[in-house]
Amino acid sequence: MSNQESELNLPVKEKIVPESLKTKTIDPKDYLTFHKLTLDNNLEFWESIAKELEWFKPWERTLDSSNPPFYKWFVGGELNASYLAVDRHFRSWRRNKVALIWEGEPWDSSPREVRKLTYLDLFREVNKTAYLLKSYGLKRGDKIGIYLPMIPELPIFMLAAARLGLIFSVVFSGFSAQALADRMNDAGAKLLITADGGWRRGKVVQLKEIVDKALEMNKSIKDVIVVRRTGSEVRMEKGRDSFLHDLMSQVPNNAYVEPERVKSEDPLYILYTSGTTGKPKGIVHDTGGYMTLLHLTMRQVFDLRDEDVYWCTADVGWVTGHSYIVFGPLLEGATEVMYEGALDYPEPDRWVSIIERHQVSILYTSPTAIRTFMRQGERWITKHDVSSIRLIHSVGEPINPEAWRWFFKLVGREQVPFGSTWWMTETGGIMISHTPGGYLVPMKPGTNALPLPGIGAEVVNEEGKVKSGEKGYLVLTKPWPGMPLTIYGDPDRYVKVYWEKFPGAFYAGDYAIKDQDGYFWILGRADEVLKIAGHRIGTYELESALIQHPSIAEAAVVGVPDQVRGEVAEAFVILRSGVEPNQGLKDEINRFVRDNFGPIAVFKDIHFVSKLPKTRSGKIMRRVIRAVASNSPIGDVTTLEDEASVDEIRNAYKEFM
Ligand code: WT7
After folding, report:
1. pTM, whole model, 2 decimals?
2. CA distances from 191 to 125, 130, 321, 419, 489 (A)
3. What is the average pLDDT value for the chain, to the nearest integer?
4. Where is the AMP-dependent synthetase/ligase domain (predicted)?
5. CA count, 13 A, side-chain hemisphere, 163
6. Residue range 341-352: mean pLDDT, rounded
7. Selection from 637, 647, 646 nearest residue 615 by Cα
8. Is the predicted pLDDT of residue 279 greater than 90, yes or no?
9. Which of 94, 131, 162, 301 could tie 82 with a disulfide, CB 3.0–4.6 Å?
10. What pLDDT was estimated at residue 567?
């Protein structure tokens, strides 16, 4: 039983309600009454939020549901995400307000670089960059790839692309060549932006080398722009690669590029995420619905105000960064911190020093980060002043109550709202929160609390809604602004993966429980998807990476619990005949996968076996492996082809215990 489940019956009097808040607390019952109104008058509700954005042309139809599940929001409306995030503030009193406080990783007794960009600076940079992209002959609807470390050029290129109506696809800079190539091929990107390297834990990650390798497996990319970051020497291919600073020297300083009037339902970006089988799916997000959802959540969930300093510790390469580093905070004219490197480099208190130095007031972070800090010890926190913090949220995976309590005490000083926001790449923005509708509901450690206004969420099984306290599947019962347009290039898969299991509802792929107060407890993935340190990785992807190793014939991967990372992978491999199993080979396989997939692939162990539990039709029964791994009953194995395979897995465990 998970920690979450064991806490379900927490007596009401022990629910934690902070005393000194700006956000008003509300009784969950009262909130749910209001919430019901927003569901009953759903379109009116969303219209009222969307109206707060600036549209070049107002929409004619709020929701087009003529071809479900391919819903279109705010049809007929025209807007531009770059205009909303940059120009609007440039044209207001916020012109000289700091937008980005960027801190580089390198450190000699203090950060070596802190760069502050005002909305005026951002306006200039985005326009110059858009001017440059335009000079490549790119036009509306063309795709570009972005493979950059956490430097200001990353949001700038995203905003510049949006300005021109280009569809960008950002690839997390921790992914390796194959993953980058797959994504660029699928998207058909014409141009790729990268850097000469990125800083990570004091070392340079050679991004350009990875790009060179990836482009050997790609035909669509004709041009590469390279940002100078680390100064490392890189190979430049003539006619293909150019340095950004060389190109920029040709761009007038006061360049201005008229923002395209894109349609509300025009794609803003494609972001790849892992699924149960097959290659990662390109989730396509629209413009109008997406910006509307970000507006709602920045205002209500984060209670963002002009005096705040906001910091989301994610990487822009993931959806959290797209929504809550780039488009959300900038849409609202926030001042935000963007940090380049590892949160605990060079010392475990790097992140606390950032809070103190920049007086961060709103913090958005992850359970894995919190558990890492916990392990490093509270002295790293108590030596700093964190009293500027007034609101905290976490995201990415379930937060265990122990970690929640620890962070609530040390950083939240037992008095600030601290929630675990549930959402996913597909939803575009936050769906379930402790601060829905701009109110705080009493906090229960480990829960995700209540759906946002306008968002319909339920826990169901094949028979329908489950009773409160019972485990089921999480579904979203109404279309929402920010929902995917489709899976890029594969609309059938979009229907199949999300809309077929529970007709009429969006299937999220998570197990959940709803308690007697209506609070949601998201328990974890119900499919073959792992969450390693909050990063979403398909078991299938890791298996594909493993079998590319010349010594491996077959592989099965399952997730096993990990104290810090929440979950890590465990591999069972069958070696090719004649290959000797030994520790050296294990290390080599580990390195091989990290090099070929990316360092986010963390294996607890790699076991050598001669058989894998499979069904008669040849499908690997991961359920059986997981059961052995967690020492629980293996259940029905009548479809198993060869029972001896289970003993092999058992022995593999004994051997390494
Ligand atoms: C999966 C989506 C949303 C941005 C980061 C992850 C898990 C996410 C929580 C939370 C419990 C959570 C779910 C979900 N998840 N947030 N607060 N509590 N689980 O986006 O990579 O698309 O992953 O992350 O399992 O399905 P993603």
Report:
1. 0.94
2. 19, 13, 22, 39, 19
3. 93
4. 94-479
5. 29
6. 98
7. 637
8. no
9. 162
10. 94
H helices within 451-519, ranges in order?
491-494
CB 448 near ligand 1, within 6 Å: yes
Please give the residue that has the higher pLDDT: either 23 or 546: 546
Q: Whose CA is nearest to atom 18 of ligand 1?
A: 398
**pLDDT given for residue 21 in this prediction:** 53
- pLDDT at residue 148 is higher than 60: yes
Nearest-atom index, ligand 1, CA of 430: 3
State the Cα–Cα distance between residues 391 and 21, nearest whole angstrom.
Answer: 9
- Cα–chain center distance at 55: 27
Q: How far apart are CA 278 and CA 396, in angstroms?
A: 22
Structure tokens at 633: 């009953």
User: 396 alpha carbon to ligand 1 midpoint, in Å?
Assistant: 4
* Ligand 1 midpoint to CA 535 (Å): 9
CA distances for 337 relative to 12, 259, 361, 582, angstroms? 37, 26, 11, 46
* Cα–Cα separations (whole angstroms), residue 428 to 6, 123, 262, 328: 31, 25, 19, 11
Name the 3-class secondary structure at 107: strand
CA 478 to chain centre: 22
Q: What is the pLDDT, as a whole number, of residue 236?
A: 98
Q: Is the pLDDT of residue 151 over 60?
A: yes
SS3 label, residue 402: helix
| Atom 8 in ligand 1: residue holding the nearest Cα | 396
Residue type, 30: D
d(CA 133, CA 258): 13
> Which residues on neighbouring strands pair with residue 203, listed in sequence order?
200
The owner of tokens 């035909």 is 219
Contact assessment for residue 236 and residue 226, using Cβ atoms and an 8 Å cutoff: yes
How would you classify the pairing of strands 391-394 and 362-365? parallel
Say whether 381 sits in a helix, a strand or coil. helix
pLDDT on residue 133: 98
What is the C-alpha to C-alpha distance for residues 372 and 77, in angstroms, rounded to an integer? 45
Residue-wise pLDDT tens digits, 299-341: 999 999 999 999 999 999 999 999 999 999 999 999 999 999 9
Report how far ligand 1's centroid is from the alpha carbon of 448 (Å).
11
Residue with tokens 């078991």: 539
**Could you read off the pLDDT of 159-214 as tens digits, one per residue?**
999 999 999 999 999 999 999 999 999 999 999 999 999 999 999 999 999 999 99
Predicted pLDDT of residue 16: 55
Q: Which backbone phi and psi does 433 adopt, to 5 degrees?
A: -155, 160
What burial letters (b/e) apply to 519-529, b meaning 16+ CB within 10 Å?
bbbbbbbbbbb
Distance 508 CA to ligand 1 centre (A): 10
Does the structure show a pLDDT above 50 at 254? yes
Query: 508 CB under 6 A from ligand 1?
Result: yes
Q: Is 88 helix (H, G, I), strand (E, B) or coil?
A: helix
DSSP 503-536: TTSEEEEEEEEE-TTS-EEEEEESSSEEEETTEE
Tell me the HSE value of 100 on the side-chain side, using a 13 A CA sphere.
Answer: 29
Tokens of 195: 């850097």
* Dist. CA 37–CA 268, nearest whole Å: 31
What does the DSSP assignment read for 423-487?
--GGG-S--EESSGGG-BPPB-TT--BEEPTT--EEEEETTEEPPTT-EEEEEE-S--TT-EEEE
